[in-house]
């Protein structure tokens, strides 16, 4: 049986990108076979390169979002640098940018302008709050958008709201940009025309707020912050075991509660007690419910608790640390880890979640050094060594 090529093999993407939202979107395209040319500033490049040095001296965000790309370091404020990027865009299938609101339009690199000049191009504008409206020109860092979208209001404990521990607004925008590109490429295959794609971080994360929004705007109060617990289901929380582990469990219906009471807690009387027999009763008596479950699990080790819950058909999990995830037996058993090349040597990274059986494996290329591919890209455009030397001397490229 012949192996199918990756679905974006032959697609070229030019990205004027920074931080997380656009780079994470274009990394998905690179993983699926696209050639991604990342345009960076000569004076330090994508500022995410400087977020930290946690990945053996490299920034963890940058390593995560930028594998498999070619780095072109060029000054877009210099007409000669802008001309280089325009020439690359003219031969590309996709263009992606997430510059500050209005900056791309001033350079003529906004989606509307580019698609008018290149009808087959798919051009993506990623912004914080959209191209118009009273928030259009506000700064839109991930934490700020998490707050504006209301995510923080439903995350945390009753006493304190907290932001998500990952950049949820950036990731949401990235994945809608990624799917928008795929949809636009499919339309181009049918019509011959690409077209603009617009994604805002606020729109993306507000969509992810779907059930709290529906709950809170149709006559009910929005869900309360309950930490690891659930606002309308009990028991649904983490419980300590005898060896200090934290085991999470979720009882979805009253049949499961009966099995939990009889087979794990060894308190069969709780199954028919009117204070616990129904989910509504358990939720109304949440403290007593949690106390009963906590007492039952406190005499078991984490391993014993998980084994008992599994045997009883109760949904359960460990409260894993990041180190636990890195050593997760399921990821190891499914061979999900690979090594990715970087300027400091190979680093371990997960295969992307999209698996295409029968196709080539995801294209997990190296993380580029700043300007690593500048000379090769300029030579491919027909520029001589003398011309590139002048641009380098003038600080237009690195």
Give the topology.
Elements: E1 12-16, H1 21-31, E2 35-40, H2 60-65, E3 69-73, H3 79-90, E4 94-97, H4 103-107, H5 111-117, E5 122-127, H6 142-148, H7 168-191, E6 195-200, H8 201-208, H9 210-217, E7 236-240, E8 246-250, H10 254-264, H11 279-284, H12 286-298, H13 302-311, E9 315-318, H14 322-326, H15 329-333, E10 337-340, E11 347-350, H16 374-380, H17 385-393
Parallel strand pairs: 1-2, 1-4, 2-3, 4-5, 5-6
Antiparallel strand pairs: 7-8, 8-9, 10-11
Helix pairs in contact: 1-7, 7-8
Describe it.
By secondary structure, the protein is an alpha/beta fold. The protein has 17 helices and eleven strands. The chain has helices at 21-31, 60-65, 79-90, 103-107, 111-117, 142-148, 168-191, 201-208, 210-217, 254-264, 279-284, 286-298, 302-311, 322-326, 329-333, 374-380, 385-393; strands at residues 12-16, 35-40, 69-73, 94-97, 122-127, 195-200, 236-240, 246-250, 315-318, 337-340, 347-350. The protein has a six-stranded parallel β-sheet with strand order 3-2-1-4-5-6, sandwiched between helices. A three-stranded antiparallel β-sheet has the order 7-8-9, covered by helices on one side. Helix 2 links the parallel strand 2 (35-40) and strand 3 (69-73). Helix 1 crosses helix 7 and helix 7 crosses helix 8. The radius of gyration is 26 Å and the shape is elongated. The mean pLDDT is 97.
């Amino acid at each position: 049986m012949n192996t199918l090529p990756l679905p974006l093999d032959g697609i070229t993407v030019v990205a004027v990108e920074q931080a997380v939202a656009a780079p994470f979107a274009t990394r998905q395209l690179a993983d699926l076979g696209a050639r991604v040319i990342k345009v960076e500033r000569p004076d330090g490049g994508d500022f995410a390169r400087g977020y930290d040095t946690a990945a053996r001296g490299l920034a963890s965000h940058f390593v995560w979002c930028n594998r498999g790309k070619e780095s072109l370091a060029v000054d877009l404020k210099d007409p000669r640098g802008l001309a280089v990027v325009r020439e690359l865009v003219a031969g590309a299938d996709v263009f992606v940018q997430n510059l500050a609101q209005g900056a791309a339009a001033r350079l003529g690199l906004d989606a509307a302008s580019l698609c008018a000049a290149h009808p087959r191009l798919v051009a993506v504008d990623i912004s914080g709050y959209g191209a118009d409206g009273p928030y259009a020109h506000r700064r839109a860092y991930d934490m700020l958008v998490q707050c504006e979208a209301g995510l923080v209001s439903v995350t945390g404990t009753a006493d304190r709201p907290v932001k998500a521990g990952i950049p949820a607004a950036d990731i949401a925008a990235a994945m809608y940009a990624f799917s928008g590109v795929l949809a636009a490429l499919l339309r181009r295959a049918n019509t011959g025309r690409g077209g603009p794609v617009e994604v805002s971080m606020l729109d993306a994360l507000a969509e992810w707020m779907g059930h709290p929004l529906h709950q809170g705007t149709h006559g009910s109060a929005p869900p309360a912050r309950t930490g690891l617990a659930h606002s309308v289901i009990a028991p649904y929380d983490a419980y300590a075991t005898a060896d200090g582990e934290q085991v999470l469990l979720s009882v979805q219906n009253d049949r499961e509660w009966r099995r939990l009471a009889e087979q794990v807690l060894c308190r069969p009387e709780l199954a028919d007690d009117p204070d616990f027999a129904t989910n509504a009763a358990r939720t109304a008596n949440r403290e007593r419910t949690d106390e009963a479950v906590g007492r039952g699990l406190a005499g078991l080790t984490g391993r014993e608790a998980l084994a008992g819950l599994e045997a009883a058909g109760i949904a359960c999990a460990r409260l894993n640390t990041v180190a636990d995830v890195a050593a997760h037996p399921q990821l190891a058993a499914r061979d999900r880890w690979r090594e990715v090349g970087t300027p400091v040597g190979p680093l371990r990274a997960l295969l992307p979640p999209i698996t295409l059986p029968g196709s080539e494996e995801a294209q997990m290329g190296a993380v580029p050094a700043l300007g690593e591919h500048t000379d090769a890209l300029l030579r491919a455009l027909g520029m001589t060594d003398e011309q590139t030397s002048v641009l380098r001397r003038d600080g237009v490229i690195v």
